TrEMBL record:
Pfam families in the cross-refs: FPL
Protein name (database record): FPL domain-containing protein
A Gene Ontology BP annotation from the UniProt entry: regulation of autophagosome maturation
Domain spans labelled FPL: 196-357
Keyword Nuclease: no
Residues of the signal peptide: none
Keywords assigned: Autophagy
InterPro entries linked to this entry: CLEC16A/TT9, CLEC16A/TT9_N
A GO CC term assigned to this protein in UniProt: late endosome
Superkingdom of the source species: Eukaryota
Amino acid sequence: MFRRKKQSNGDLSSPPPLIELQDNIAALNDLLSETKVRVQVTGRKPNDCTKYIKLDIDTEDRMVELIRRIAELAVQGEQKAASLAAAEEDANSVLTGGSSRMNGSVASVHSDHSIHANAVFEYFCEQNVVSMIIDIATGIAFIDDNDEGDVMKMESLEFGATIKSSDTDEALAGSGSFDSHWKPYGDSFVPLAVAPTRIAVQAIQAMSILIQNVKMTTSLYLILSNPKLKDLINIRLDAYDVAEKDYVESDDYSHYSGSQVRDDNNHAATADIFELTNIFVTFLKSMAMKMNPETLQFFLSYPLHKGRRPNGNGSRSDPQFYEDVKFPLYERALQFCTPDVETFVRTTAMNICLNILRLATEGDPLLPELNSIEVDDTLDKRWSAMEFVDHEDDRPDRKTNPNSTSELPFKERLTISHFVCEPSRVQQLSSGIFTQLASLCGKIEEAVRKIEKIDHALSVCFVTIDKAKENPFPANDGDSGISGGDPSAKIPIDIEKEEKKIETLQSERIKVVKHFHGDIVSDFQDELYLLEDLLKVGLIPLNEQIIEMMFPTVIYPLILTPLHNFIRQNNREGEREQSAFGGSFIKHMSRPVTPNIPNSESDSSLAKSALFVIASIFHYIKHDVLLNLLTTVLLHPLCPEVSNATSLEQMYLSISYKDEQEYTHIKTDTYQKENNVNLYSFGRQNDGSVEAGSRTNSRQSCMFVFTPILTDIFQWSMNMTPKLDTPQENLKVNKYRRTLLSCLSGTDGMGELQSLAIYAIDAIVSTMSKDVLNNVVLAAKVHEDIEFRSNPSLSDGDESITSESTSFSQSTSKYMIEFIASLCVSAISASVTFDGMWSLRYSPIAAHAIYCSSLIDYSVKDTATKLIRHRRFEAGKFLDQTPSRLKRFSKDNDKEIDSDLMMDRVFFDPFCDGDTFVVENTSRRPGEGPGNLWDGPAYIDVMKDGNILLMAKQICEDISAKHIIGHDCEELSYRCGANSAVSYIRLDAFFTLLKDKLETNNLELEKGYKGVAAISRCSTKILESRKQGELYAASPVSEALSNLLFDEDVSSSANSNGLVPKPGDIVELVGRKPFPCVCEVTEENQSLITDGSSCVEADGVKWQSLYLVMLKKHMILAELVQGDSGGFGRIVSICPLCCLMAENHRTLDTDSSAQRLLLTHFSPEKDVPNLFTAEKLDSPREIDETRTIRSTLDIWFEDTQSATKSHKSLCSKIYRARIERGKKIRQLLVQR
């Protein structure tokens, strides 16, 4: 050790940092001597609480500053010594070939500087300051040394009983300092007196700084080898909590500057205690970061069993050997993994545990020639290998302190694996996650319940206002007490009061939704990510226990039970077990879904949160085994009968696995995947596993109830086992599958959950592999072997089931048809609004799930195509009924013509959301060059990814959006029909896509959720589009529907076969009732006029004489052919009648008899008809964006009579053209 020399003229003086360090340490010792108190153990009662050492503010401040400065000086001195040592090595390396005399002098100078620099840290260690700082944190430093009592002073705070001096072996097994001033508190010991919180915080922070910042390995060894370090690891923070509460209740609290107690059940009861907990966990993290093969000896201690020899009931193959292994750092970190601690503390503790777990899974196997786990020459091999490598310096004190972990020897990894996989520790590690998930599910349910309550109140307000608009003075019902209960009295409804109530409710709803999105959903996501990180470590014995624990704590109580209870509550057909369609699924697909109107008597919050949990798990968890078993319990035709299930108890932890070459491996997911072996036994013995001894302690045994049966069902379905080993009495029809399919299809009163069930099923279908979906969900390989207690038939005499569009092969699995049919039902749902209108709603999420399912194989794709074709037919029939619902607003006597005209208005008037046209929901790229109107077909969005944020928005969907279309108003009813038309077009385009050939080779390597970006590579017809930040997959609209939407059969630009005339063509005017008129001709249109003699200029405006003529389905403006007698005309402008609107405008000029007729043309074509002027667009048109261009033209007639006559004739032709187009639409809707 360093000894300070006496200063002389010839000696180098001590560096200033060393002098300062010496003074500070001396000052700290003096303060401790002055503040030591004598705590009498005798005479104190067992229930006496821990108290703070009473120190004045100046003493506290002085001690805090001394601890901080001492640690800072020690770190600076050590880092400077490390830097000088590195510089010395560099200098020696550079001057190797120079003069030996010069090299010697330079080395001497560097050596002197290195000695002085290292003197600071050496003096720090010589004075045992680490022990002093730790004693300050634990309170031992403030206790009089003379108060020793009769208890032997040993070196471990973790001992909970008096240690006898005869227990030599056990005494040697511990380290630290046991003191009589630690009294019984629960199952451990707590101090009777502790340092003030500020001092303890600084002391622990000083230790973290020292461990994190020392550079040389020897320095780290000196700190970690201190036996007092275990005292700090095992410090009782609850003792500080007790002391803090005692101080708050004392008379001295008036001088206290801290904040009030926040949580009686939390370590951090005040701001100071909160900081102490954070600093302490940071200290644990700093230690965990320094764990590596060389330093593991300071963290992990092996038992010394008296009278036992290796491989003789005391070897590593003996399970009892691992029961006495000590790993204080991991044990302490586990205590902070509970959900009642602060988020930062818990997350840090979980990261510590995860880093330790990863140490066990990274490394090479045990070689077979070693024959014994006890023998390990890894370190010898490492040092032998160093002899063949030209290292500049292998001195341990010259090694750089490693900042990252490296692979551990096999025996250490095996020991850590045994230690962390002990069931009690696994439960302590994972129970916090499951508890927090359950708590967050409760918060989700509460938020959903509040939203539903507000929505119900809003719906009542909306209905009240609707009724008030119809009848402002409803009759008194006699119960209100107004007017003496006279039924004839009229009670006015205060609409303003209802509107204020709506405003208040919506404001409250915004707060609930904001809290739901901002806090609850993100916290739930964080918990699942923690679970994913835990499973991703890949330690199979650990994962087996976590997966087993997840079923009774999360899967059954939070998912399965709430869903099944809700269907039992809402099933209108009683408790009878039935298929998802109650007989014929074709009949079900032909009827609408129950209206989704909030019901105050039905609480769906538990079921909605269950669906949210399902979707979240499949989105955020990627562990194959867990997802396979979860898919099995959710959607396999069979499920375990838990009440009859046989529990399997694993008497020992099967940690390792011996392969065919006798290599011993620790069981990890990585090894299982790379070698294609199944190492998940869940309590069942696997061939090839390493045998262990008999059960010695209940802590080493694991109970498996759910996972063995589910694994048996899964492996049997995947043909991994030849038969189903589970007895028949332990299996039953999977009622949870039926529940989910009922939610998906909207049967059994589950229509309220359909939109959320779509997200849940999409998460499953888009995440799981094709083999799992085909064999587990669709039961492709075992569907003939499954024996149900009742065997429902898919056909109940419905003739439509045998039709060409819905016929299936006898070999097709009925479970596949049932599942795909449920998905197809959810693709487009129909509900009824208050005014009796059908409202079709297309789900791009459901379409995404159907498309992913169709990628399984051809039979699934063929089934989905047939069912979507049928669903499109039924949706078309629903949409075809729109005019009959609108007849209440009709004023014409001819109801049949009126129906066709209504249908045309639904498709071609601006009634969609945002006052847009139906066609504007499509995208189509205009052609380039003359005669090329469109470049390819029209596309429309049909699929999009179903992420959790969208699902959360769906849960919080604004109720006002559902009720605004229910007002008794002609315009709003048309809006409902127009939006339904868009849904039908999307379904038509999706059917077009589904018929196309699919390429699935590109998806074989896709892992996790297969989104639009992945599946877009499966078909050349899919185009990606992005709207409002969301990625969609667009598909072409069918040719027949596209021709109607874009009026291609009457467009002169789209027809080059001569069937539709074009500008410049000569047409006969005789017999067509031409109406003479004039219109303004601009310079841009001057070239269209060939007969200049008929052009008149007045006041700088050129007016051209033309003839307005109706030519079949078109209106034309023609000029007389020069030299002709008037029987023929040259077309100047032509446009389809169905795209026109004519308005008769009277002129205000009393001096003129001329009358104006305003023509408006609507078309998605980029070029407007000749003479027409296009209105300016609000924003530039995208390349493939479909915009309905509005253009206008004023034509003038000689007098009012001629204008009225032409207007009446033109409107009649326009109506007929629109009626004919509407009729074509209705005919197309009802076609199969």
